[in-house]
Amino acid sequence: MKKNYYRRAVLLLPILLVITSISCASNKPLYDWYDYQEDSYHYLKNADEKSVKTLIETYEKIISKQNASRAAVPPGIYADYGYLLIRSGKTKEGTEMLKKEVELYPESEVFVSQIIKRLGKK
């Protein structure tokens, strides 16, 4: 009886280990954010030319190098990047980025169209 018990335990142990290790596998994130969190924090904290330049570079990196599982630019990036470009005096490029946000995420149209409408009044 004991011999049979140990034999079953020896057979079940590797199976349980495999099941446990498979269940702990990590999934690839939906989006690659790169240094966005840190750079946007520095921009909001300092708002100097260096932090603006760094944040713009981060936006460009996020837009050009999407390697995550969705391979799409994260929601809000085009809108935020466009707004930053507009604040930097690049209204045409900024407006194009806002329109790209609406193309990629149609649910943002209500918010983004208000920004574009206000730009048209200036």
From TrEMBL:
Keyword Signal attached: yes
Domain of life where this protein originates: Bacteria
Keywords: Signal
Signal peptide: 1-25
Name of the protein: DUF4810 domain-containing protein
Organism this protein belongs to: Treponema parvum
